[in-house]
Specification:
single chain; about 200 residues; Lambda Exonuclease, Chain A
Length: about 200
C-alpha cells in the first residue's frame, strides 16, 4: 500500500501521542505545548501500571489473540520518521518474515477514532523502520483481554497526514483551538481548569 505523500520536511517534530490527543480534543496538545504545568491523574498512573502488567503477560503468551501462529514480539519500540516529522514509542510490534504489525495496549473498553489514527500512525512508522508491508495492526483491550484489528486503509493513512498538518498549524500560530464537541470528555480531563470558556 502506498505511503501518503508529504511535500516537505515538517516542523516541529510531533509525537504519536500528540496526534492521538489532537483527534480526541484539539486543546490537549495545545495545553501540553503551552500550559505551565501538566497535572498527573490517578487514571494516568493506573494506565501505566496496566501497561507494565500486560507486557509481562505478553512475553509468555502465544500470538493466538492476533490470529497468528508465529512471529517475533518487540516491546517498547522507539520509532522516528524524518519524512513525517513524527516520533513515537510503540507498546509492541509483531514481526514476521512477510510483514510487521503494530500493537497498542489500551485500558479502555472500546476503540475510538483517536486510537485508530494513533495505531495507523504507528503503522506508517513501522513501515519505515522495518521496510515490510504493514496492512493492519491491533489494539489490545486490557479489560476484556481481546485484540481488535485495525486495517490501515488509504483513508486512515490520509487522515493521519491531514491531522498532523492541522496540529502543526495550530502549534505554529499558538492559537487556542476550539474544544471537543463531546463535552462528556471534559469531565476527567487533566486540563479542565484551563478551559475557563466552558463555564
Amino acid at each position: 500500500m502506498a505511503m501518503p505523500s508529504v511535500v516537505a520536511l515538517p516542523e516541529p517534530e510531533l509525537t504519536v501521542t500528540d496526534l492521538k490527543n489532537w483527534v480526541y480534543c484539539p486543546r490537549v496538545p495545545y495545553y501540553m505545548a503551552f500550559a505551565p504545568h501538566r497535572p498527573t491523574t490517578f487514571k494516568m498512573e493506573a494506565g501505566q501500571g496496566a501497561h507494565v502488567h500486560v507486557t509481562d503477560l505478553e512475553e509468555r503468551r502465544s500470538l493466538r489473540a492476533y490470529g497468528l501462529t508465529e512471529g517475533e514480539r518487540v516491546f517498547g519500540v522507539k520509532l522516528r520518521s524524518a519524512r513525517l516529522g513524527l516520533v513515537g514509542w510503540l507498546d509492541m510490534a509483531i514481526l514476521t518474515p512477510q510483514a510487521a504489525m503494530p500493537v497498542e495496549f489500551k485500558t479502555t473498553a472500546g476503540v475510538s477514532l483517536n486510537h485508530r489514527l494513533q495505531l495507523t500512525a504507528y503503522g506508517l512508522l513501522v513501515e519505515e523502520r522495518w521496510g515490510r508491508p504493514v496492512e493492519r495492526g491491533y489494539i489490545y483491550l486490557i479489560p476484556s483481554r481481546r485484540a481488535q484489528t485495525v486495517v490501515f486503509t488509504e483513508e486512515l493513512r490520509q487522515q493521519v497526514v491531514t491531522a498532523l498538518a492541522e496540529l502543526r498549524t495550530a502549534l505554529r500560530t499558538e492559537a487556542k483551538p476550539p474544544p471537543t464537541r463531546q463535552r462528556a470528555k471534559c469531565a476527567d480531563c487533566e486540563f479542565r481548569r484551563y478551559c475557563a470558556d466552558l463555564g
